[in-house]
Design a protein that fits this description.
By secondary structure, the protein is of the alpha+beta class. The protein has helices spanning 39-44, 72-89; strands at 53-60, 63-71, 98-99, 104-105. It has a domain at 52-90.
Length: 106
């Protein structure tokens, strides 16, 4: 990619598989490593002081290329849904009991 304002090629883009993403703000990291989320974003996401945010990264060629910030409750809800589905698949009616002494199914 040249130094001009050309768009990166597909091979150069990290998040090409994430079409839902867009830049909604540019923030500055201060000398203490903190950022301020613009008021409009906080309001749109209904974020309040003290809310927990999960910071996740995407990697390409062993380098971190994308950083995302998601309300921790969203991550928690996703995990509960996922684990709930997994746990329902592990109900005793779905698991064949084995005789551990012989390794045979009962």
């Amino acid at each position: 990619m040249s130094e001009k304002t050309e768009k990166p090629t597909i091979e150069e883009q990290c998040c090409e598989s994430q079409p839902c993403c867009s830049v909604i703000a540019i923030v500055t990291l201060d000398d203490r490593g903190q950022i301020v989320l613009p008021k409009e974003i906080r309001e749109k996401l209904n974020l309040k002081s003290g809310d927990k945010l999960a910071v996740t990264t995407l990697e390409k060629d062993s380098k971190t290329c994308c950083l995302t910030i998601v309300p921790a409750k969203e991550i928690s809800d996703m995990l509960q849904k996922l684990l709930g589905n997994l746990m329902s698949n592990l109900q005793p009616s779905n698991i064949k009991e084995k005789d551990m002494t012989k390794g045979e199914e009962k």
